[in-house]
Amino acid sequence: MNRLTELFNQKKANLLNVYFTAGYPQLDSTVTIIRNLAEAGADLIEVGMPYSDPMADGETIQQSSMKALANGMTLDTLFKQLPLTRTYTDVPLVLMGYYNQVMQYGPERFVKAAKAAGVDGLILPDLPVFEYEREFRDIAERHDMQVTFLITPQTDEERIRKIGELSTGFIYVVSSSSITGKSGEITDGQKAYFARIAAMNLSQPKLIGFGISDAKSFRTACEYANGAIIGSAFIRALKDVDDVAAATRSFVRGIVAPTEVGV
Amino acid sequence: MTKNLQIDVDERGYYGRFGGAYIPEMLHPNIEQLKNTYREMTAGPAFKKEFDALLKDYVGRPSPLYFAKRLSAHYGTNIYLKREDLNHTGAHKINNTIGQILVAQRLGKKRIIAETGAGQHGVATATVCALVGLQCIVYMGEVDIARQAPNVARMRMLGAEVRPALSGSKTLKDATNEAIRDWINNPEDTHYIIGSVVGPHPYPDMVARFQSVISEEMKWQLQEKLGRDYPDAIVACVGGGSNAAGAFYHYLNDERVRLVAVEAAGLGVDSGESAATSVLGTEGIIHGSRTLLMQTEDGQVIEPYSISAGLDYPGIGPLHAFLIDSKRAEAISVTDEDALAAALFTARTEGIIPALETAHAFSALDQMEYGPDDVIVVCLSGRGDKDLAAFTTYLDGLGK
Do B298 and A75 touch (CB under 8 A)? Predict the structure, then answer.
C-alpha cells in the first residue's frame, strides 16, 4: 500500500508535514534531514526539488533552491539519495517541484524513478487540473503515485469538489493568497476560510500550508484540518547551522512538543 | 507549406503544442476571468471605439510606413520601416498597454503591475496608469535598472514605483518572476499587464491582438504606396516577441510573406552568453507557457545574455515557437557587435537612431537574401534614446 494511504488510515489529526529543499544546506544533507525529521516526529516529508524559477515561492525557498543548485543537486542525485533513507524510516515522502523538471526528465521516466526511490506522492503547483488530466494523470495512476492539488481562498466550491475528485493524495489548503514564506498569526478571515473548507466534508485528508511557521500556527491549523505543512520556517532554521541533525530535531520538537524544549 | 494556413490559438491557448496555462492554483481565478472575458470585451464596440481613439489621438497612430531610400540603395532592394519608434513613449509597447489598461478598468482593478526589460514596457505601463489614474508598480531586473537608467527616470516621473528584481540573472526573466509573485500575493485588486506575447493563456493571444494594429496598418499603407497589400518579407526582433507578433499578425496565414524573427546572439550563439532561443532552446515551460526555452537537461532555466535588455530573455512566446517549429517563420540571430554596428549604420544612413533591440532587426538585413524588386518591411519597434550610454561607449571604442 502507498505509505501516504497507510499514514492517513492510521492518523487523522495533527499530522506534521515538513518541507525542505533537497541539496540545502549541503548537497548530501538529504538523508540526515529526512531521518531526523522522521525520528523527531514529522509524519510526512515534502522534498523540494530545487528549481531555478520557483514562481510560487518566496525569498527563503528561492534562496535555498539557488544554493542547492549551486551545490550540484540534480534529480538523478536526489533519486540516488532518497533510497538511503529507507534504512532508517518508512516516513511517507512527497516530492514538490515545478512541472518543467518533470517534463524534461520525461513524465513517465520521472514517476518510475521517483517511485523506485521510495517517493509516495507529488506536488506540482504549476501543473493545473486541465493539463494534469491531459498529460499526466494516467501515468501517475498507473504507478500509484499520489498527486496533491492546491486550493486557495479564491477557489470556488465547484472547483474544490473537482480538485477533490482528482487529488489522489491529500489536499493542500493554501492558507492565504500568497507565495510561500510569510509568517505571523492566523487571522479570523483565514479561520473562516478553513472552517468553510472543513464543512465541505471532502473525502481526502487536508493539510494547511503557506504561512505556518511555529507551534502556535501549527496548532491553530490542526483545529481545522488533518494537519499542516511547514516549509520556509524550517529552511530558515537550517541557515548557517553546523549540526544539521541537531537543528532538524530541535525544530520539529519546537513544533510538536514545544514545552519540552530546553533553551 | 500548406495552402490554407490557419494559424490561431485554440480555446485552451495552444498554437499547435505550444502555449497553455501552466500556473499555480493561486492565479487560476484571475487567469480564468481574463480568459473568459477578453475576446468578447475587446471586440465590443465601446471598447474598440475607446481603444482606437486613444491609439489615434494619444499614441499618434497610424505610425508611418517609411520608404528608407538610402538603406534600400545600400542593400539593393526596397526597404520600408514601420515607424513604431514614433509612437508616444517611443516604442510599440504602448499599443498593448493602452488595450490592457482598458481591460483592467473594465475588470474593476485598482492596482497595476508590470515587468520590464529595456524599460519600454515599464514606461508604457506607467504612462497608461497615469492616463487613467491607477497605481503602478514595475518590476525590473537590477542589471537592467543600471543599463536602462533613462527609462527608470521616466517611470519615476510618471509616478510608477520601480521595484528591483534581485534574483537569478537580475534581468527580464527575473522581473517576470517577481511580477507573477506579486500577482499571487495580490489576486483581487491587481491586474498584471504583461508586456510581451509570453505568459499563460490568454496573454500571448491578447497581447498579439493589441499589437496586431501594426500589420493592420501595414496592409493599407502598402496598398496605398505599392498597389498591393503585402510585402515579400517582414523582419522584426524577438525577445518575447510582441512587436514581431504584431507585425506578422495579419500575414500569418499569407504564405507569400516571409516572416523573419531576429534573436539576440549576445556574444555569439555558441559562446555561452546568448539569448538565441530558437537555436539554443528546447521545449519546456517558462512563465506559465509551454514554449521553446534555454534550459539544462534537468529543466533548469539557463540565464540568457544580450547587450539588449529587451531581448535578454531565455524563452520566446508560444506563437513564435510554433511559427519557427513549423517553419512558417525563419529565425536569424545577431550578435551584440553586429547590432551596435547596425544601429550606427541606420543612424548615419537614415537619420534614425533605433533601440538596441531594433538594431538586431536591421543587422539581420546583412544575413538575408532578396531581389531588387522585393519589398521588405522592418518593424522599427523602438527608438534608441534609452541606449545612448551603450552607443557612446561603442563610439568611444571606435574613435568615431
Answer: yes
Q: Do B301 and A75 touch (CB under 8 A)?
A: no
Selecting from B24, B188, B300 the residue whose C-beta is nearest the C-beta of A125 gives: B24
Q: Do residues A46 and A18 make contact, with C-beta atoms less than 8 angstroms apart?
A: yes
Mutation site, B166, B186, B298, B303, interface A, largest A CB count within 10 A: B298
**pLDDT (tens digit, 0 to 9) for every residue of chain B, 400 residues total?**
445 577 889 999 999 999 999 999 999 999 999 999 999 999 999 999 999 999 999 999 999 999 999 999 999 999 999 999 999 999 999 999 999 999 999 999 999 999 999 999 999 999 999 999 999 999 999 999 998 999 999 999 999 999 999 988 899 999 999 999 999 999 999 999 999 999 999 999 999 999 999 999 999 999 999 999 999 999 999 999 999 999 999 999 999 999 999 999 999 999 999 999 999 999 999 999 999 999 999 999 999 999 999 999 999 999 999 999 999 999 999 999 999 999 999 999 999 999 999 999 999 999 999 999 999 999 999 999 999 999 999 999 998 7
DSSP-assigned states of every residue in A209-225: ESS--SHHHHHHHHHHS
Give the cell for residue B19: 502555449
Give the ipTM of the model, two decimals please. 0.94
Mutation pick from B27, B32, B283, B285 vs chain A, by most beta carbons of A within 10 Å, is B285
DSSP string covering A184-241, please? Answer: SPPPHHHHHHHHHHHTT--SS-EEEESS--SHHHHHHHHHHSSEEEE-HHHHHHHTT-
Residues with Cβ < 8 Å from B45, sequence gap 6 or more? none
Is the Cα torsion angle B380, B382, B388, B390 positive or negative in sign?
Answer: negative
β partners of residue B136: B112
Per the annotation, the verdict on A46 as an active-site residue is yes
Contact B25 A155 (CB under 8 A): yes
Domains located in chain A, CATH noted: 13-252 (3.20.20.70)
Catalytic residue among B84, B115, B217, B357: B115
Q: Do B186 and A53 touch (CB under 8 A)?
A: no
Find the residue in B nearest to A58 (Cα): B181
How far is it, in rounded angstroms, from Cα A222 to Cα A230?
12
Burial of B393 (0-12, 13-18, 19+ CB in 10 A): exposed
Q: Residues A43, A57, A188, A242: which is the catalytic one?
A: A57
DSSP string, A43-83: SEEEEE---S--TT--HHHHHHHHHHHHTT--HHHHHHHGG
Burial class (CB in 10 A: 0-12, 13-18, 19+), B375: buried
CA distance B212 to chain A (A): 29
> What span, in angstroms and rounded, lies between the C-alpha atoms of A44 and A15?
8
Q: Can you say how many angstroms the Cα of residue B79 is from the centroid of all Cα atoms in its chain? A: 21
Residue of A nearest to B300 (CA): A52
CA distance B22 to chain A (A): 5
* The model's pTM: 0.96
DSSP string, A98-166: -HHHHHHH-HHHHHHHHHHTT--EEE-TTS-HHHHHHHTHHHHHHTT-EEE-EE-TT--HHHHHHHHHH
Q: Residue B62, preceding bond cis, omega within 30 degrees?
A: yes
